[in-house]
Design goal:
Strand content: 5-15%
CATH architecture of the largest domain: Up-down Bundle
Largest sheet: 4 strands, antiparallel
Order of helices and strands: HEEHHEHEHHEHHEEHH
Distance between the termini: 37 Å
Oligomer: single chain
């Protein structure tokens, strides 16, 4: 059995508070732009990663849908606190013998009954609904956690496409200059036509990469605009660069933090506690509830000698057959299911943290290898071979090989940098909070 986790956490209060106080206009047909986002010109907006997340919390429809789960659970809390309604009844009794009528010899009676729940049933219902509300809040946090990762990933995918595009344009422009120079050299008879053709083919290859990078950038921006509910006519300018930020977290602390603060685990814990409260409620239903009633009757002038009568009665079901055996058994199974679900979630979280941590360490070593000199060496080699080619000290094949090597190394570095950043985001998502440098 697991102990109840009653800690709400500052992140829970801040996040839930932010969403609950958002203005209604946040989900209107024309979404507002957050103050932090700088709108430079009509149809253009500058967004940092923080701005994008703020806009996402304001406008994303999936977040709104998840927020409705909290409101639904609050309705269940209200219902759990209510007392059973009293029952009021009115009736008549009359005899039409010997000339009597309803007005002369009939009887009119009033009665009110109230059900009183025993064995703490109302308290258990309130307790169960409270755990349900806490579980819904944690589930909402978890939805924001998962969707927030998608926003960050989409944001950096745009930056990845931008870096690829910049590299492709740099290589295209560089070879455009080489092609212009060698076209003149060919006309003067300094180089063979086959060498000029090779340069043209390489130029076409770089131009193709520019087009491909432009398409990838547009697709990535479209995904980000959809997450932020922005118009497709709006141009996005992202200000948070894709850069290397070295992290060296302690895996032991990450495991402890993840099982303690991750919202999906807390939601499972609250659900488990709710099922335990439901079991106590089901056991309390073995005790029958009492119905207390009171009545008053008046009769006509030809009735008996007691024209006014008072009545008081008690009703108590006798639990001979139904002692809620089935409900108790169902509640016991629900507790066992919730416990198994919690254990499963803990196992998943531990493995996710472990895998994300290992991936981060591997990708960090790769980025550091590039930053340690390989990237600069590739660029320098291309420049050296290009100058040697211009002086006749290298062949066109040497130049093309150096160009391809430099391009491949730089592309691999950009990919490694993006994968490292994505692994950082995955580890933060697996832990349930940001990781400090």
């Amino acid at each position: 059995m697991f102990r109840q986790d009653r800690r709400s956490g500052y992140s829970t209060l801040l996040l839930a508070g932010l969403l609950l106080v958002l203005p209604v206009q946040a989900w209107s047909a024309t979404p507002p732009v957050p103050p932090a986002a700088e709108q430079r010109a009509p149809g253009s907006i500058r967004l940092s990663l923080t701005d994008a997340l703020a806009l996402f919390l304001q406008q994303n429809l999936d977040v709104l849908i998840a927020k409705y789960g909290i409101e639904y659970s609050k309705g269940q809390q209200i219902t759990a606190r209510l007392f059973p309604n009293p029952v009021a009844s009115i009736g008549t009794l009359s005899s039409y013998t010997q000339g009597r009528t309803l007005s002369t010899g009939g009887q009119l009676f009033f009665q009110a009954q109230q059900l009183f729940e025993l064995a703490g049933k109302r308290g258990y219902r309130i307790e169960s609904a409270g755990f349900g509300a806490q579980s819904a809040e944690a589930a909402f946090e978890d939805a924001v956690r998962q969707l927030g990762f998608t926003v960050k990933d989409s944001y950096y995918r745009v930056q990845l496409a931008q870096r690829r595009l910049a590299l492709a344009e740099e290589n295209r422009d560089r070879f455009s200059r080489i092609l212009d120079i060698n076209t003149i050299r060919f006309k003067k008879g300094y180089i063979a036509e086959v060498d000029l053709i090779r340069i043209r083919l390489q130029m076409v290859d770089f131009h193709s990469m520019v087009i491909q990078s432009l398409q990838e950038a547009e697709s990535a921006r479209g995904d980000l605009r959809q997450l932020l509910r922005l118009s497709p006519a709006l141009t996005l300018e992202l200000t948070t660069d894709l850069e290397f930020r070295r992290l060296d977290p302690e895996i032991g602390k990450l495991r402890l933090v993840a099982v303690d603060v991750r919202p999906d685990v807390r939601s499972k814990r609250f659900t488990f506690s709710q099922r335990e409260a439901d079991l106590r409620l089901a056991q309390a239903y073995r005790v029958p509830d009492v119905t207390v009633g009171a009545g008053y009757a008046i009769q006509g002038s030809l009735g008996p000698d007691n024209p006014q009568q008072w009545a008081l009665n008690f009703g108590l079901p006798v639990p001979l057959f139904n002692r809620n055996q089935g409900g108790i058994r169902q509640a016991e199974v629900a507790v066992q299911t919730a416990e198994a679900d919690l254990n499963k979630a803990l196992n998943v979280v531990e493995n996710e943290v472990e895998v994300a941590y290992r991936n981060l360490m591997h990708s960090r070593r790769l980025v550091e290898a590039y930053v340690g000199g390989v990237l600069d060496d590739a660029r320098a080699t291309f420049t050296i071979v290009e100058r040697a080619y211009e002086r006749g000290g290298a062949t066109i094949l040497d130049l093309l090989d150096a160009a391809r090597t430099s391009r491949t190394i730089q592309q691999n570095y950009i990919e490694a940098l993006f994968n490292y950043q994505r692994n950082v985001l995955q580890l933060e998502s697996a832990v349930g909070q940001e990781i400090a440098s």
